[in-house]
Amino acid sequence: MKIKSLLVMLAIIQVISLGNALACHGKETPEDKTGKVEKGTGEGLKDKITYFDGFNFSIKGRYHQEKNYQRLPAKFEGKVRPVVWDLSTASSGVCINFRTNSPIIKAKWELLDVYKPRNMTQISANGLDLYCHVNGKWQYVGSGIPRNEIENEAELISDMDTTYKEFRLHLPLYNGIKDIEIGIEEGCTIEK
């Protein structure tokens, strides 16, 4: 009897999770006229992607405003222990927030180092995770799977409707990011 109840509960959780993921495809967030970055150019033709530098958006999880994705500012190098400085160059905890009405989101990113962990996946160590704000909560919607050692490109999500949605892109846990660009369909808008 307990096993049957547990299986029913797991099925309900899966249905709720699927509903939240599908809601991201059609959930409109309130309009925010501040922080507009740029509008893509073109007629919105499929497979035409415009990329925007990650520094155009709100970056969280850093203790500075420098143009890098490290957790500590450059002035701390040499002032903290070398092991602390090395750990601070990983982008763990750093994320990029943005809003878009694009039906597709892609990313291009360049890693700082070649990092091949033995005890975890390449996605957690070197990849990206994309979340969408749905019903007051952040819902996982896709990952950027690293295919190369340094320079990578991935489609994070596609086939969404064109209502504005709020996204959070989490950077790798154990590697640093030298550069990242977020891609949207031409003709769509992306904002802070």
Automatic annotation (TrEMBL):
InterPro entries on file: GxDLY
Domain SGNH hydrolase-type esterase N-terminal span(s) in chain numbering: 51-189
Sorted UniProt keywords: Signal
Top-level division of the source organism's lineage: Bacteria
Pfam family, one: GxDLY
Signal sequence range: 1-23
Protein name as it appears in the record: SGNH hydrolase-type esterase N-terminal domain-containing protein
Organism: Maribellus luteus
